[in-house]
Amino acid sequence: MKNKLWLPAIVLAFMTGCATSHKTLYHWGEYETLLLDMYTNPGEVDNYTQITKINESIAYAESKGLKVAPGIYAHLGMIYAKNGDMPNAISAFENEKKYYPESATFIDGMLSRASAN
What is the reported pTM? Predict the structure, then answer.
């Protein structure tokens, strides 16, 4: 009877150990925290801070061979466009399409709206 109790304990310990070594598919960096701050404290996260933090996250991901999460380049492109920096905006939008080709139609729409302003 005592031997039967060890099996569930071992399985539970193994599953717990596996759960803590979980790898994510994408590198998010501080992006999620940045978005939370943008929506919970509107106006407090200026464009310069966003550009800096996102570029730092991208540089870190590239240095470690990690995939930048979908939408990060698009967000960066919109911020550059808001600042009137269309060359960097276009570059960021093109990177989003390059790494996530399924987003091409959406990104092309964002680019046309950004260019119209």
Answer: 0.76
